[in-house]
Amino acid sequence: MKITASIVTYITEHEELQKCIDSMLADGIDHVYISDNSPSDNLRSFCEGLSNVEYFFNGKNLGYGGGHNAAIKKAIAEGADYHLVINADVCFNTGVIPAITKYMSENEDVAMVQPNVLYPNGEQQYTVRMLPTPANLIFRRFLPNSWGEKMNYKYLLKFNDHKSEMNIPYHHGCFMFFRVKCFETVGLFDERFFLYPEDIDITRRMHKHYRTMFWPGAVVTHKHCAASYKNNKMLLIHIKNMIKYFNKWGWIFDEEREQWNAQILKDYSQKQSL
What we know:
By secondary structure, the protein is α/β, with parallel strands linked by helices. It has helices at residues 14-25, 44-48, 63-77, 96-106, 134-137, 145-155, 183-186, 198-207, 232-249, 255-268; strands at residues 3-9, 31-36, 53-57, 82-86, 90-91, 110-118, 166-167, 175-179, 211-222. Helix 2 (44-48) links the parallel strand 2 and strand 3.
C-alpha cells in the first residue's frame, strides 16, 4: 500500500511547513509533494534537504486545485493507493494515518475521509458542512451578525456533536484523504476555481458516486486563518469564485443540494450534545 500527500505552498513559512511534513512522514505517508505556487522557488533549497519530499516549482500561481492536481497526477502515475490533500498549517500526532487507512480498507465504498479538525486550543472546527446556498457564502457577509449566526448554526452542522461518523457532501480542503482510484470516476479538482469552492465541488462530485465521510476516530489540528474575512483582495477572490461555483451548480435551483441537505438534517440533527 502506498500513501502520498501534497501541500500547495505560496510564500509559506518554513517552520509551519516543516511541522506539517514531520507529522506526515512520522505517521506512514510514503511521499510528500510540495507544489509551489510562489513567485520564486525560495523553498527549493529547504525541501531538497528533506527525505521523501519532492519539490516542484509551478512557475506561476495555479490556484489551490491546480496546484494539487499537479501532485495528484504524479501520485496516480506512481501507483498511490491513497492521497492526502493537506494545508501547511495542519499537524497531528502519530496514529492518524494508520487509523484512517484502516477505516477506508474496511469501508470500500468510501472515497474520502475528513477527520475531526480542532483549533490549536482544542475547540471544534466545523469543517464538514451542508452544500451552500448563495446566502450561506456570499450574502451572509453583509447581514447583521445575529442573522449570520443563525444561518451558520444549520449550515456548519453546529447542531451535531461531531462524535459520530457522518456522510457529508462538503469537506473543507484543509485535510482531504482520498482513495486514488475514485479519481478515475470523478476526475480531479476543477481548475476553473482558483481558490475556495474547489473543495466543495470535488466533495460533492465524489459524494454522487461514493460515501464521503466525516470520521471522528482521528483528530488533527488546523491553525486556520480565514483570509477572506481579513483581506479585501481575498474577499474579492472568494466572491468571484463562488459566482463561478453557483453558475456551475445552480443559484436557486440545485436539486442535489436540496435533496442532500434535507438528508443531512434528517440523519444527523437529532445527534446533539446533551
